[in-house]
Amino acid sequence: MEGLNKLKLLISKKYISVVLFIALDIVFLIFISYLGYKIYGVYSETQALNAEIDQLKSSSLLIKNNKDLLEDNIGQYNTALDSIIPDTETYFQVISAFEQLEAKTGVNIESYSINLSETTEDKMSLSLTITGTKESIETLFEKYHYFGGRLMTNEKLEFTPEGLDSMTFLVNLYHAKIDESAAGSSGSNVISKDDIELIKQIADQL
Amino acid sequence: MKRRINLFSQRIDNQKAKRYLRTGQRVTYGVLLFGVLALMALFGTYIYLSNNLAELNTKKNTYNRYILTNQSFNKDIQRFVQKFSLLKTYIKTDANGYSYYRDLIAILEPAGIADNIDTFSIDNNQNLDYSIKVSTYEEGIQVLEFFEQPDVLEHFNSLTLESFNITQNEVEYTMTFNGVMKSRK
Question: Does domain A74-177+186-205 have CATH number 3.90.1150?
Answer without folding.
Answer: no
